[in-house]
Amino acid sequence: MSDAGDLIDITQPVHPAIPVWPGDTPFEIEETWTIDEHCPVRVSKLTLSTHTGTHADAHSHYDSSADDVAGRSLLPYLGPCLVIPASGEGAAVEVEEVWAAIEAYDSVPERVLLRTFRRFPLESWPESFRAISSSLIDKLGAAGCRLIGTDAPSIDPQDSKTLDAHHAVHGHDMAILEGLVLDHVAPGRYELIALPLRIQGADASPVRAVLRPLSA
Q1: CB 2 within 8 A of CB 9
Q2: 5, 104, 163, 209: which sits with the fewest CB atoms below 10 Å from its CB?
Q3: What's 58's domain CATH number?
């Protein structure tokens, strides 16, 4: 990912070959109007899943009675965060794996981003990925964390039917970012900017996620 000035882009590039959740909608872009002697502008039509690439989940993604992405406060998606490496061997990131890194700072950060891939799979859907344990979500939420982010496609295992981590997030009214690209980001403190689109009725939204380094 490229950066602009002091901004570090942690967003997946969106293109027709971008991997999507098995069975979900492939990304397509199609020209509606084309610049020629009859038309002065180009306009395109997009077909995509709300979970394409780097995206923010709304609570309505897993609870039909919960708020949509347009109803979410933007505050969790903007502000100081902590990037933590978490590419261990377990099926899920557990409290003991990351808590020492969190305690190295004065207080639990309001936003935590976990790098679970040693190298992000830009070209293919990952056969397996690390989830985040609901116990870690609970501990973060109880300590005042407002957002959990991951480079994995989901904070729950791909075959989960209970979505324990998602429901733990809901229980603490936290926000979720998934599909971040953190290969080129050193562990530490940053400012996160990753605003979802205001799509009424949507269960998620793609985001353009960037980091800005903060002084120690």
Answers
A1: yes
A2: 5
A3: 3.50.30.50
Which candidate, 55, 54, 140, places its Cα nearest to that of 94? 140
Whose CA is closest to 205, among 90, 49, 97? 49
Active site residue 38: no
* Active-site residue (options: 55, 59, 61, 166): 61
Question: Which amino acid, one-letter code, is at 148?
Answer: I
pTM of the predicted model as reported, rounded to 2 decimal places: 0.95
Residue 167 CB: number of other CB atoms within 10 A? 15
What confidence tens digit (pLDDT) does each residue in 79-119 have?
Answer: 999 999 999 999 999 999 999 999 998 889 999 999 999 99
Give the three-class secondary structure for 19. Answer: coil
Of the candidates 196, 215, 207, which has an alpha carbon nearest to the alpha carbon of residue 74? 196
Query: Which domain range does residue 143 map to?
Result: 3-11+50-213
